[in-house]
Specification:
The chain is of the alpha+beta class. The chain has 5 helices and 15 strands. The strands form 4 sheets. A 7-stranded mixed beta sheet has the order 1-2-3-13-5-15-4. The protein is globular and about 50 Å long. About 45% of the residues are buried. Bound molecules: succinic acid.
């Protein structure tokens, strides 16, 4: 169904990003060829989706660790018994949720995670979709002039808007973030255009939640262009929308995608479990 030669069925979701994988039971011990082919699909489509999977924490971790080492989030306590496991729980009545604006995961650290594996534990009958956008497509659609201008520019990423006392985003209860007293800002500069370490393709790497300003420029000076890039980054033609069901899993490549959780679950509870994989320093 897709251009690649895969030992399972791959059904692309849109022309830019995302594919559903059929015929792989990820709770099972997968052979090396299947894991290599899944990695290829992740690199080709940016995010891959699985349906009807039965994953307890151990099986979820075992699958994730076929692709790398588990990442420990600096600002989230994680599950009491296991700091790598992040339960994202949205209760009826919660007005804020985690990830409700476009972002890539955890760019405030020096080596942001290479990917995330989000599993639907208890998914509402409707609402609570997640959207993804290809940052390859976002970069490639910029004019040559703007591409050249951004070539050696870096930007500061911080968690000050997503955690800590001055945050604009996210309800503290949903993922057990550190208390305001314990929280210390984490911030790093990264290239505005990064080169993917496996595909060699260039991707835009700024987002609305964490990117504060361009290096050597004030926030006020940066604002106009940053706002333009952050809005451009998720144009409809670069994106896809995933409708969750309990038992679905989304595995995204955090190096070339952004995503956003849609805050429309109203009276329903939504419980997700997320694991992240270690990545390397963006270049
Ligand atoms: C996230 O931003 O990692 C959470 C996405 C979601 O809950 O849909």
């Amino acid at each position: 169904m897709s251009s690649g030669d895969y030992p399972f069925v791959v059904e692309p979701v849109t022309g830019a990003i995302g594919a559903e994988i059929h015929g792989v039971e990820i709770a099972r011990e997968l052979d090396a060829d299947t894991v290599a082919a899944l990695r290829r699909a992740l690199l080709e489509f940016g995010v891959i989706f699985f349906r009807d999977q039965s994953l307890d924490v151990d099986r979820h971790k075992a699958f994730a660790m076929r692709f790398g080492r588990l990442f420990l989030h600096p600002n989230i306590k994680g599950d009491r018994s296991d700091p790598a496991v992040i339960n994202i729980v949205r209760e009826p009545g919660d007005t804020k949720i985690i990830g409700e604006d476009w972002h890539s995961d955890t760019p405030q650290v020096a080596e942001p995670p290479m990917g995330s594996l989000l599993y639907g534990v208890d998914v509402p009958p409707y609402g609570g979709d997640t959207m993804f956008a290809s940052q390859y497509h976002a970069y490639e659609a910029l004019s040559p002039g703007l591409q050249a201008m951004l070539e050696n520019v870096r930007a500061l990423h911080s968690d000050r808007r997503t955690a800590g006392p001055a945050r604009d985003y996210g309800a503290a209860n949903v993922v057990q973030t550190l208390s305001n007293d314990q929280w210390r800002e984490t911030a790093h500069f990264h290239p505005v255009v990064r080169t993917h370490p496996e595909t060699g393709r260039k991707a835009l790497y700024v987002n609305r939640q964490t990117t504060i300003a361009f290096e050597h420029m004030s926030e006020a000076e940066s604002r106009g262009l940053l706002e333009y890039l952050c809005l451009h980054a998720h144009r409809p033609e670069f994106s896809c929308r995933f409708r969750w069901k309990t038992g679905s899993l989304a595995f995204w490549d955090n190096r070339c995608t952004q995503h956003t959780a849609i805050n429309d679950t109203g009276r329903f509870r939504r419980v997700m479990r997320r694991l992240q994989l270690c990545g390397d320093r963006p270049v």
